Amino acid sequence: MGWNSWDSYGTTVTEDEVLANARFMAEHLRAAGWDTIVIDIDWYDPTARAHGYNADAPLILDGYGRQLPDPARFPSAAGGRGFGPLAEQVHALGLKLGVHMMRGIPRLAVERDLPVKGTPYTARDVADLDHVCVWNPDNYGLDQSHPGAQAWYDAQVDQFAAWGLDFLKVDDMQTPFHVDEIAAYHRAIAKAEAAHGRPITLSLSPGGWLSTGYVDFLRGNAEMWRISDDLWDRWEDVVQQFARLARWAPFQRTGHWADADMLPFGHIGLRAERGDDRDCRLTPDERRSLTALWCMGRSPLMVGGDLPTSTPETIALLAAPALREVTAGSRGNHETVRERIFADWGDESSFRGELIVWAADAADWADGTPSAHPGGRYAALFWTGDDPYELGRTIELQSIVGLDRREEPWSVADLFAGVADGATPADVRLEGESADRVIRGTIPPHGVLWIALDPR
């Protein structure tokens, strides 16, 4: 659970902006589980700008071709200190610090033919000119058949660990899927962890068309991996994630997470790649749907909005206790129902939307915190249509709690209760007697009823 600068600042975030978000998180969100601050791409480009990347950018490199923070944007990095001073300030707030990094080696290091630290090789020796990122011009690939390629990653990651970084988001790794590069980066992190005595989380991006067939390899080499391309504040982007998270949910394990991408909530687009300065364009009910889906799918939660200038309603949603509880501690998460609903059955032109239901076992503990619903179940009832949907008698209680527990005296609790975020108040209840009980209520347009069922 963290903050990433991309949705707000694109390639241009500054040290002051990072610290402002870190301080806000520490004061307002850390108690709810939010604990990581991530600086996204091009922190080493002094010509970085909104809305795109710069060809032939004069990247700031050390004598071994490793990227250094732009001291104009990150003054504490001057004099070769890198992100060490900033990491100290973030750690003092009780938070973790991470950065974005591209796969491969800077083109500028290859042009200058800089040495690879600790080897007789140079950047030109280890570069792979045939495996270059198609959307960012900063780097060449690395030739992993060359012994100097591993040494390049080893030296780069060792420097990150020496600065005190806790989290590395490494891009251009999965689309296409670069098996050797991922394994090499994992080995470099393992060496740095052993040398510096601190764990580093590896997050892989992007994730277009990512196959679940890679799951064993991914668990062995990373803590997080994206399962989609970039997600923005458009309902159609959210709808695409229902199928992806349903596909990946059975493979989620604590410590190794399929990642549905950032939550584009709050004040975004200040200097971002896409769109203008704005508040998230998702409606309050759409934001709740996204939140509940990510939590039921146990995706990592990385928010993209500038926290100090986001609305109180956004912060209230992020601070909801259920986010941490369900993401960290639920089990057996899965989609149970997905049905296309028509106003006139048999008439394809009368399609209204999809009713999608998820269920999971409630947490007993979540990240060391006792669950509010021990022994219970979680359910999320989503509706993708543009008008409200009235639940009939189709969602039986026993389909969520299990046939062997259907006689228990279940009660229902709204997991968004008390969250003042402007969304439609929940209309949900249990009706019927004993084993014949059903979940009834009205789901708002593009909305969700996110509930806990307690056996008491």
UniProtKB/TrEMBL annotation:
<dbReference type="InterPro" id="IPR002241">
    <property type="entry name" value="Glyco_hydro_27"/>
</dbReference>
<keyword id="KW-0326">Glycosidase</keyword>
<protein>
    <submittedName>
        <fullName>Glycoside hydrolase family 27 protein</fullName>
    </submittedName>
</protein>
<dbReference type="GO" id="GO:0016787">
    <property type="term" value="F:hydrolase activity"/>
</dbReference>
<keyword id="KW-0378">Hydrolase</keyword>
<dbReference type="Pfam" id="PF16499">
    <property type="entry name" value="Melibiase_2"/>
</dbReference>
